[in-house]
């Protein structure tokens, strides 16, 4: 929305989740100081409306969960994209809204973890890494039938098009996630993240930057930026939001290590199925370069990530718990996401 001279207002009275999200989103292209000045008297009503959406999402209302994650995704887009004009980034009110959404998302994701799983964690080093991989191998997300059966054997070109849209919020910005999470690191961990990031940058070749290669898939399927948001489900949005949430805050560095490490470890097996489907359907070769590369590259990255970041960090009990938590967030959210995709595809 362009900047206007009129005072910004928050509609009085009961409003739907859609109305709340659209109202708040409409302030993103307004200077932060103006947002805070004009809406200072509406602050409590704004926060109350967001709390209501969170409460309804916690009660498993699908519409509320979708709008909760949609608003958080839009805020993350606001703070991770270069603006072409005025922006509400830095607004105190927008920050308060963000924290409410993030805290609700954290509580919801933690509710999927059985507390006893932490009690089973062994000590540091290789025993911890072996335990973490064992948990993953026993998890429903491991070799999920969405990839092994549906994508591999039954997916149509339209199904792959939908798949690409749904994956865009993680795969489409993995380089930025790495850049955010490496802040404050040092030594072997920083070097491992840097090597991973440089691979994402095509090792200095602009034509081989991974986000550029991923965007080639959009060209094959003629996917527009406008279509990306409208096609997202709550679980699609959640996948991207969890990644940004963990990578942007230093306090969640251990969780980011687990989340991104587990993401990379699962990728090669998943992408092999995508490549087989692409070849089965005879789709343009230019669109599958990204996935072919990551079958090999992510196997290397996962090994380096585990041995250069996870194993050394596991000397700290706090780091072990955080890495396990982030890994479980990734596994649990991904399993729910793939269950939803498979149900929709059936």
Describe the structure.
The protein is mostly helical and 346 residues long. The chain has 17 helices and no strands. The chain starts with 16 loop residues before the first helix and ends with a helix.
Strand pairing plus helix content: what structural class? Answer: mainly alpha
Radius of gyration: 21 Å
Number of helices: 17
**Percent in helix:** over 70%
Helix-strand blueprint:
Blueprint: H1 17-25, H2 32-38, H3 43-58, H4 62-80, H5 92-110, H6 116-119, H7 126-137, H8 145-154, H9 157-171, H10 174-181, H11 187-200, H12 210-221, H13 225-230, H14 234-248, H15 253-281, H16 289-313, H17 317-345
Helix pairs in contact: 1-4, 3-4, 3-5, 4-5, 4-14, 8-15, 9-12, 9-14, 10-11, 10-14, 11-16, 14-15, 14-17, 15-16, 15-17
């Amino acid at each position: 929305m362009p900047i206007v001279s009129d005072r910004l207002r928050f509609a009085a009275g009961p409003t739907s989740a859609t109305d709340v999200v659209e109202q708040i989103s409409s302030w993103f292209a307004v200077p932060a100081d103006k947002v805070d000045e004009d809406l200072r008297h509406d602050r409590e009503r704004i926060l109350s409306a967001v709390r209501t959406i969170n409460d309804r999402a916690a009660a498993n209302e699908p519409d509320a969960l979708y709008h909760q994650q949609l608003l958080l995704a839009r805020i993350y887009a606001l703070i991770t994209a270069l603006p072409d004009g005025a922006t509400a980034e830095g607004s105190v009110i927008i920050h308060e809204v963000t924290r409410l959404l993030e805290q609700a998302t954290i509580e919801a994701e933690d509710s999927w973890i059985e507390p006893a799983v932490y009690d089973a964690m062994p000590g540091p080093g290789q025993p911890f890494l072996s335990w973490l991989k064992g948990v993953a191998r026993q998890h429903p997300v491991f070799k999920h039938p969405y990839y092994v059966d549906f994508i591999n054997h039954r997916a149509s070109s339209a199904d792959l098009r939908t798949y690409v849209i749904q994956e865009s919020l993680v795969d489409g910005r993995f380089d930025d996630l790495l850049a955010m999470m490496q802040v404050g690191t040092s030594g072997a961990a920083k070097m491992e993240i840097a090597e991973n990031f440089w691979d994402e940058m095509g090792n200095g070749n602009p034509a081989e930057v991974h986000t550029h290669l991923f965007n080639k898939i959009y060209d094959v399927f003629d996917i527009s930026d406008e279509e990306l948001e409208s096609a997202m489900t709550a679980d699609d949005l959640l996948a991207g939001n969890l990644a940004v949430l963990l990578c942007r805050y230093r306090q969640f560095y251990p969780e980011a290590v687990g989340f991104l490490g587990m993401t990379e470890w699962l990728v090669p097996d998943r992408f092999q199925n995508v490549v087989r489907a692409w070849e089965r359907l005879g789709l343009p070769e230019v669109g599958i370069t990204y996935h072919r590369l990551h079958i090999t590259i992510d196997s290397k990255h996962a090994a380096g990530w585990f041995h250069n970041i996870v194993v050394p960090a596991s000397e700290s009990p706090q780091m072990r718990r955080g890495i396990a938590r982030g890994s479980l967030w990734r596994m649990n959210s991904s399993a729910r996401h793939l269950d939803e995709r498979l149900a929709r595809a059936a």
